[in-house]
Design a protein that fits this description.
about 250 residues, alpha+beta, 5-stranded antiparallel β-sheet, 6 helices, about 25% strand, globular
């Protein structure tokens, strides 16, 4: 019996999409008394290159990661799965963002050498100590996260960013911030900023800041949903052009 290759390809893509969706969590691990979190993701195609995760390092520390493999499609999905596999292996050894980012950069450079191509990827990786709120993080070419004061609605970018992963060797710059109760961290991929409406206008950072500031007292899940709704209303009948991901983390 000869099977239709087109049907097989569609079945393979459907299975890949299911597996990719299963890799992405919806909230912080159980037993995180100091953080509440929520996430939303929708790929532009059947599979994509956006990823995020909450990784339990030990009893008191949790790693937050969000990234975007440039290019999308099956190739990006495979690289995304490899990155997430590395991050989840031996989690107790993933407590230093600078070391984690350095290893991943070398891994993607090596993969690029083996395939004769470039494997660029942006990523924000942070480790938060629950009791103290101290957070060490590295931003490898990713959109700067937003820090929101939930009592005032004030929103500002957090930190600076380094080079993209997978392009050239570099020494990651590790930064530090101490989260206090009432602060909110918003991580996102550039697919949110690059949403285009029928008038060819971009959603952009200012609209994202406004959407965050308008909902300081709602929970993480409500804010993530509200931002996606705001994006959909702005986009109207225009087509989605990139993967879209947001992660909201409240310090409580």
């Amino acid at each position: 019996m000869v099977r239709d290759s087109t049907i097989e390809e569609r079945l393979d893509l459907a299975l890949a999409a299911q597996l990719q969706a299963a890799l992405l969590p919806k909230a912080c691990p159980l037993g995180c008394p100091h953080q509440e979190a929520a996430a939303r993701n929708r790929m532009c195609g059947t599979v994509g290159g956006d990823f995020y995760d909450f990784i339990r390092i030990n009893r008191e520390q949790v790693a937050l990661v969000i990234g975007d493999v440039v290019g999308g499609g099956v190739r990006a999905a495979l690289i995304m799965a490899q990155i997430m596999g590395f991050l989840r292996s031996e989690p107790q050894r993933r407590s230093r963002p600078m070391e984690v980012v350095s290893v991943l950069n070398n891994m993607l450079l090596d993969l690029g050498d083996r395939t004769g191509s470039v494997m660029p990827c942006s990523m924000f990786y942070a480790v938060i100590d629950g009791p103290s709120g101290i957070c060490f993080f590295v931003n490898a070419g990713h959109p700067r996260p937003l820090l929101c004061d939930r009592s005032t609605g004030r929103v500002r970018p957090l930190g600076e960013h380094d080079l993209l992963l997978g392009v050239e060797p570099f020494e990651p710059k590790e930064m530090c911030h101490t989260f206090t109760p009432g602060q909110r961290l918003i991580l996102y991929t550039d697919g949110l900023l690059d949403v285009v409406n029928p008038q060819n206008q971009y959603f952009g950072p200012q609209r994202l800041h406004q959407a965050v500031a308008e909902c300081p007292h709602c929970g993480p899940d409500q804010l993530a949903e509200a931002i996606f709704l705001s994006i959909d209303q702005f986009r109207g009948q225009a087509r989605q052009q990139d993967d879209e991901t947001i992660v909201v983390v409240d310090r409580v």
